[in-house]
Amino acid sequence: MKWLPGGWARADRVDPERGTVPAGQNQRGTARYTAADDETVRAQPRQQDRPPAPTVLSGEAQDVDVSASTFRTLLIGGGISGLFTVLCAATLVNRGATVGMWVWQLVFGVIFLWFLSSSRGMLSSRGFLLDRSGFYARTRGEVVGVSWDEIAAVGVGSLPWIQHNRPIPPDRRHALEFYPADRGFAARHPEFERWRVEEPPSMPGLPAERYRFHLPPFSRLPRSLEHGVQAVAPRKWVGHYKRELPPAS
User: What is the per-residue pLDDT across 191-246, written as a single tens digit (0 to 9) for each?
Assistant: First the structure.
C-alpha cells in the first residue's frame, strides 16, 4: 500500500512557485456512512473518462478561514510562550544563571519557535468554501472545487499525541478528509493530486484513497467544518474518527 504524505504543506514542497498551503449554527445529528450508502456508491457508473461536473460557487457559500485560525493560534500561543521566554531571559540577567531557569528558557523558546514555524501560511488566504454546489479548497491565488455528487464522504480524522512510538506534531494531528465516490476521480481532478493520500481505511466501507487537508492545532476548525458540511450536504458527513499512521518502513 503506497502512502503519500498529504496536506497543505506537501504542495509547497512539490510546487514552491505556486505556493499552495493550508488554508447561527444549530447542532444537527451526524449522518453516518452506512453499508446502504456504500452500496449506493458502488451502484454508480464508474466512468473514469467522464468530464468533471461543473461547479458554480453561490454567494451564500460558507467560508471556513484556516489562515485566520492560524493567526489566532500564533497570537495566543506564540504570544504567551514568547512572553515567558523574555521573562526567563530577564530573570537570568538580573538574578543570575541557574540550571532550572536555563531549562525553562529553553522550553519556552522551543515552544515559541514551533508556534512561529507552524504559522507560516497564515497570510496565504487558506480555507474552505462550502455550499450546496460542492466543496472548494481556497489556497493562495486560486480556488479549486468539486461537486458533492463526486464525493462519497467527508470527515475529520485525528491522531493521538504518540502512535507507534512516534510523537505526532500538533499541526498533523487533525485533518479534514474527503473520499471520492469512484476510482476515476483522481484522473478527472488532477488539481487535487497534491492532497491525495492512500492509507488503510479509517472506517468500514470507506475507500483507502482520500484527500487530506491538515488543520492547525488548538482551533475550533473541526467543529466549524462539521457544522458547515452538515448545513449543505449532511448525508456526506461521517463524523470524527481516529486515524492510523502507516507502519514505519
Answer: 999 999 999 888 888 899 999 999 888 788 899 999 999 999 999 999 999 998 87
Q: In Å, how far are 51, 52, 180, 221, 237 from 42, measured between CA atoms? A: 19, 18, 12, 31, 18
C-alpha–C-alpha distance, residues 9 and 215, integer Å: 11
> Alpha-carbon distance 56 to 41, whole Å?
23
Tell me the C-alpha distance between 238 and 196, whole Å: 19
Long-range CB pairs of 106-115, under 8 A, 24+ apart, other chains included: 108/81, 108/82, 108/84, 109/85, 111/77, 111/81, 112/78, 112/81, 112/82, 112/85, 114/170, 115/73, 115/74, 115/77, 115/78, 115/81
8 A C-beta contact, residue 221 and residue 168: no
In this model, does residue 122 exceed pLDDT 60?
Answer: no
Instruction: Tell how far CA 135 is from the center of its chain.
Output: 14
- DSSP conformational letter for 164: T
